[in-house]
Amino acid sequence: MPRIFRVDDDRETKLLIREILKKQGRDFTKCEMCKKDMSEEKSQLHHTKYEGATMQDLMIVCAKCNTQTENKYLV
Residue 8 gets which letter from DSSP? Predict the structure, then answer.
């Protein structure tokens, strides 16, 4: 998948990414870190920034897991 270097509307990009993940069968109702149930509306996308990161590196997580000290400033 090509990189997106400049995005005019971050919200539209996130919606597109969420749709792609749904088509891949990813579950937005269970945190992939702590495995707890959550509502789809509360789900967040998380990944560690690094050169060569892809959509497969994204995790669907709850707010608690996404804001843990070791995860801050990674997305």
Answer: S
* Range list of H helices, 1-75: 10-23, 63-66
SS3 percent helix, strand, coil of the chain, rounded to 5, is 35, 10, 55
Query: Is pLDDT of 6 > 80?
Result: no
Against a cut of 0.85, is the pTM above it? no
Residue carrying structure tokens 């579950």: 27
Q: Computed from CA positions of residues 54, 56, 62, 68, in that sequence, does the dihedral angle turn out positive or negative?
A: negative
pLDDT score, position 61: 93
Q: Is 46:72 a contact under the CB 8 Å cutoff?
A: no
